[in-house]
Write a structure and sequence with these properties.
With 237 residues, the chain is α+β, with helices and mostly antiparallel strands. It has helices spanning 123-137, 173-186, 200-209, 227-235; strands spanning 4-7, 14-17, 22-23, 29-30, 41-42, 52-56, 63-67, 70-72, 78-80, 155-157, 160-165, 189-194, 213-216, 222-224. β8 (70-72) and β9 form a beta hairpin. The longest helix has 15 residues, at 123-137. The model is unreliable at 88-109 (pLDDT under 50).
């Protein structure tokens, strides 16, 4: 992909912006087409519709929604990069059934053996149990850092980050939103595991952002608690 020149309207700094590439379920790498003649706008508040853009795969014709391209200027201004949305073109036969999240592959996965959990006695055990579960789902190269980073991301894998809340209180809304932003910035799927469940507003927000939520008991067996988690369990990595 070619870089696109972008000038920050706040400080006048010039940037060379490269649109992130996402994998279509058919395997084709796609990227939202940037409008070179479009006006770059600072983001002062967010809405769901403005955070996503519809892109059509040129190989299979599928329409999917992907994160609206953004650029963080060193001056602190977050810029929305204008793109050409597929919804601006003539609608295709599937235009009325667009997904509202980054889609997971629909290809049926091979049958998996039964998951073998481990007993959770410490917070570290909870992270290890979540790592084992992700490997069981089919994620490769699951990395568990020796110490928890400042980002609070406990696990990383190819195309995925995960956070594990081993506290005795329900996971709050802020934790879910922070995980989503980390996943959005890295263009990967975000998954949350919790021992004490989720606050009601956190659960509702995760449903809206399509973040898979799992609850673990002390046997170390994660259970899906929302639709995206059910989908992840069904399809695997």
């Amino acid at each position: 992909m070619e870089s696109v020149p972008v000038r920050c309207p706040a400080c006048g700094r010039d940037h060379a912006y490269l649109t992130p590439v996402y994998p279509c379920p058919c395997g084709t790498p796609i990227a939202p087409p940037v409008l070179r003649s479009g006006v770059v706008e600072p983001i002062t508040h967010r809405t769901w519709n403005e955070d996503w853009v519809t892109v059509r795969c040129r190989t299979c014709g599928r329409h999917d929604q992907w994160p609206q391209p953004e650029l963080c200027c060193p001056c602190g201004t977050v810029l929305r990069i204008p793109v050409h949305s597929a919804t601006e073109s003539a609608p295709g036969p599937d235009a009325g059934t667009l997904p509202t999240h980054i889609p997971l592959p629909r290809t049926a996965a091979a049958p998996r053996p039964a998951f073998r959990p481990m007993t959770i006695r410490t917070g570290r055990d909870a992270v290890t149990a979540a790592a084992m579960y992700l490997r069981w789902l089919g994620y490769r190269d699951v990395v568990q850092p020796a110490e928890r980073p400042a980002s609070r991301i406990d696990l990383r894998a190819a195309g995925l980050i995960a956070q594990v809340d081993s506290t005795t209180r329900p996971t709050p809304l802020r934790d879910v939103e922070c995980l989503w932003l980390n996943g959005l910035n890295a263009s990967v799927t975000s998954v949350f595991f919790s021992l004490a469940g989720y606050a009601q507003d956190a659960r509702a927000r995760a449903d809206g952002l399509c973040i898979p939520l799992f609850v673990m008991d002390l046997t170390g067996t994660p259970q899906p608690v929302n639709g995206p988690a059910d989908e992840l369990l069904s399809t695997g990595a």
